[in-house]
Design goal:
2 copies of one chain form a homodimer. Chain A has about 230 residues and is of the alpha/beta class. Chain A has a single domain, classed as Rossmann fold, CATH 3.40.50.720. Chain A is built from 10 helices and 11 strands. The first copy, chain A, has an 8-stranded mixed β-sheet, with helices on both faces. In chain A, α4 packs across α5. The interface between A and B is large, with 42 and 43 residues.
């Protein structure tokens, strides 16, 4: 399948590499590919600059947000939450209309120090903001509840025996995302409900950030036991 | 140990009965014991009126919030989050000062329909509001992340193989709460950090509410796998 991944950070890279490894035809989108390819310093999380990563992933295309969205039958939002609406605007409604958008972004506010707070919570969510801004896009919130490496390979923690959530208004779109998740190795995919349930998946991130601080390692997840 | 439990709803009753069963000397506190004992209708969750429950629990005392707080060496806040600060004010700073307060309440806002939203989240928490209002009280947030029956008996779900959190500024107070939790059967007690980490434990409730809707049963919890 042709897939566009918006965002060149660790989440975008990890998901793009996983999808390419599963034989999908992947293009990563960024605001300005020339700027992205001119970077020489590690990012704020210590990841190597994008050109270094790209050398190991020649099978993955690089273009603008609009190029990547136009390329994809399926589009992934892996941009930082604070710029997601802007990035999707740059991708263009005409390139997203009617398509499935897997939204992984979290509404992190880094301006108040660490751990981050959420710039929207409880009565609204970033997933809903995106769905309202792009009513013709089939938005599914998923994979925002764990570290990028665990997203792409759940077997890294507890042999994959833990849970992932899907939220969205379109049942078929959620099933398509669940299929992708199962191809990553996810076994317990829980449908939380319509896109308002993204309030739950994003609200959990407040706990995730504290667990990360308490456990001192990012390689963990939650298993819903019942 | 002498324990005061503030709140006569299902959480207060369930925790009080559990503690009394463990040979603690428990008094439940309410705003007006005469009013509470005159109730004849089930509450909004369908629980029997308090006098019916009390007949089966003669070993548990009943008094005002102030009576119960004065009685307890250890005090439990099991009131509704929206009235917790008011109830603790009625309990009286002089009856709480220096004591350990186990805060189970959640900041649920029921005014916007179901599922509830949270009246404070992300940048503050009810746990912090209580700690700020009562700086001389050793507040520990715990047990707010699951159904009341699971709180008191974790073995009801997955043989007790799941997690509970403690948040607070006083390490000794958190250890005292952990000891009580272990006496209930909890094995995985995770210290999330200082009282600001109550933002995580309370923020998770947004997910908990959606999971309840998705699973259609309240008997579940999360296990932190790592």
């Amino acid at each position: 399948m042709n897939i566009g991944v918006l965002g060149t950070g660790v989440v975008g890279r990890t998901i793009a590499a996983k999808l390419a490894g599963l034989e999908h035809n992947v293009m990563i989108g960024t605001r300005d590919p020339d700027v992205t390819m001119s970077r020489t310093d590690p990012d704020m999380y210590g990841s190597p600059p994008f050109p270094v990563w790209r050398e190991q992933h020649h099978d993955i295309g690089l273009g603008t947000f609009a190029d990547a969205a136009a390329h994809g039958e399926f589009v992934v939002n892996a941009t930082a939450g604070a710029v997601s609406l802007d990035a999707l605007g740059a991708a263009g409604t005409e390139n997203l209309e009617g398509k499935l958008l897997l939204d992984i972004a979290n509404p992190l506010d880094l301006s108040r120090g660490m751990p981050p707070t959420l710039f929207v919570s409880s009565t609204d969510s970033l997933g809903e903001q995106i769905q309202r801004a792009f009513p013709g896009v089939r938005v599914v919130k998923a994979l925002n509840t764990m570290n990028a490496f665990v997203m792409a390979d759940p077997s890294l923690v507890a042999d994959g025996d833990h849970s992932v959530f899907v939220c969205g208004n379109d049942a078929q779109a959620k099933e398509e995302v669940a299929e992708i998740l199962r191809s990553f190795g996810w076994r317990d995919v829980i449908d939380l409900g319509d896109i308002t349930s993204a309030r739950g998946a994003e609200g959990y991130v407040a706990l995730w950030l504290r667990l990360w601080g308490a456990l001192q390692v990012p390689m963990f997840n939650i298993k819903v036991v019942r």
